Fold EAL domain-containing protein.
Amino acid sequence: AKRLGKDRSELYDSRLHANALASQRTEAALRRAIEENRFVLHYQPIVSLPQQAIVGFEALVRLLDDDGTLIAPQHFIPVAEESGLIVPMGTWVLRQACSDIATLQRVSGMRLAVSVNVSAAQAARHDLADTVASALTDSGLDERSLCIELTESALLEADESTLAQLNDLRARGIQISLDDFGTGYSSLTYLRTFPVSNIKVDRSFVAGIGVRPGDLAIVRAVTGLARDLGIGCVAEGIETPRQLAEVIALGAQYGQGYLFSRPVPVTDLLDLLVPPLRT
Ligand code: C2E
Ligand code: CA
Ligand code: CA
Ligand code: CA
């Protein structure tokens, strides 16, 4: 038993070491990427379900590796969060997204919104509202075209200053979405405390429709809650026509997912908005 224990702890130590090495490497790569501005934004459409039309896009960050591969956020966001680099990265994302969508609005002549993910560390800063304000001023994007997405865990750490800044942003017309709804804690308290304008139903619930009996009931309850509160509801992760039909039947106003489009580079957005003429 003693030997086994020793082997286990050695195994544990070597894994820990490997993880530490990996995250050191990622952190060094992250620092470099930030310094060299090597992030890329992809955009995924958010669709009005009654109108079957794109009303906006969610900006999703990727990291450009040394060899030109794009690295998904799950591989570097945790390191960015631990190291605090998430704050300058998040500011870059916000500014780039506002600028990209302001340009797209001008080129397309369409009123389109952009949703930007804001991490807990960003939300905790006293200059959040100023950072948002300067991103809007510098890009020329209208307040009503910007939505910031916060998760319940980001709001878990929110203090009076965060609340005051979110109220200020909301009062100026900026939208606030509660992301991954239903996966965190005390969701309902957040809806009462914070000036939330949209709920995003986590894609695990949408994926569970027709699979786990409870998930249909949960999606129905959340869409009903949003309707009664007079706020928007986005069903995330719609992959199949059946899921689309279900979330429409349940009254979701907006949808997002691979069925409509995967996240795409900014250069592809105009093609999504203007379908080719049928001949
Ligand atoms: P999220 O905010 O929940 O974003 C939605 C994620 O679901 C995206 O993954 C998107 O590609 C994926 N998705 C969309 N539709 C479908 C679908 O139909 N099926 C499936 N299986 N997945 C779908 P992505 O781009 O890998 O981003 C993962 C997470 O990384 C995001 O989850 C968000 O939490 C974080 N993230 C991304 N960009 C940023 C950012 O700029 N700042 C911060 N703080 N976090 C970000
Ligand atoms: Ca999001
Ligand atoms: Ca989400
Ligand atoms: Ca998520």
